[in-house]
Every structure is written in structure tokens, then in C-alpha cells.
Amino acid sequence: MINKNRIIVWLAGLLACLTACVADKEEPEWYLRAGDELPLFEVTTIDGATVSSADSYKTEMIIVFFNTTCADCRRELPILQKQYENDQKITEEARPQYICISREEGRADVERYWKEEGLTMPVAAQDDRILYSKFASIGIPRIFYAKDGVVIRSEIN
Description:
- The protein is α/β, with parallel strands linked by helices and 157 residues long.
- The chain has one domain (42-156): 3-Layer(aba) Sandwich (Glutaredoxin), CATH 3.40.30.
- The protein has helices spanning 4-26, 71-87, 107-117; strands at residues 42-44, 50-52, 61-66, 97-102, 123-124, 142-147, 150-156.
- The strands form two sheets. The protein has a five-stranded mixed sheet with strand order 5-4-3-6-7. The protein has a two-stranded antiparallel ribbon with strand order 1-2.
- The radius of gyration is 21 Å and the shape is globular.
């Protein structure tokens, strides 16, 4: 004999599961776009320098979120390093400020990777996604260009 209550509970569970799956797929990807206000932040680089959103009022900022285990990040970071080196040749007033910020990766791993790859861009390690979540919900590498407290361009590579 079929237990109607058991079937109703099973169907309710199935419906809840399907609803959750559809909701996840329909949730829009969120990230800052051109024209959005730059979130307030302050980080300390591995070298001990402080970089903050206030620096965008002095010069253009290039903010890069990455993780060293990400294949796309490993491909893009050397390209950004070359851009950084080229930008070091221009006058200080016109030179953008770079800051690379790890997404959920500790200092030891980031420092080791930077040394192994010969990267010299300023980098700050973040053990969590708290700062990253002010900029985006998913996806790395993410690059934000900001000036005067406003995002002027954003991209994911």
C-alpha cells in the first residue's frame, strides 16, 4: 500500500531542490562596472606599504584580484607585470598605481608565487573574500581601473 504522506513529503523535497537549482542559475553575476563608486578599502602590501581607495584621487588605480592556483590568473599576471614595468617608465604624476589583491589566499603562498615568478607589482594577501566581495561575487582574475573614487573600467580575463 502506498503511503500518501511519504509521497507528498518526497515531492515537496524534490520541488524545493529544483527551485534552489533554478534560483542559483538565475542569480545574476554581480560586479562593479564603469561609473560605480569605488568601495572604501585599505590593504597592506607584502612590503609593508599601505594602499587604499583614497589613492585613486591622486592617480589612476589598477586593482587586480587573483589567486595563484587559478590558471587564468597565472596567465594574466605576467602580462600585467609587463604593463606595470612599462608604466614605471612614465612620469610619476601620470603613472597608475597598481595593487594586486589575493582572493582567499594567505601571505606565504602569495609571497612564494611572487618570488618564483619574479613579479614586482605591489601585492596584498587576503585570507578571505571580504574585500573581494565589495567588488564582485564570482570570477578571477578581475581587474578594476579607478580614478577619483569611481570605477572607470572593469574586466575579467
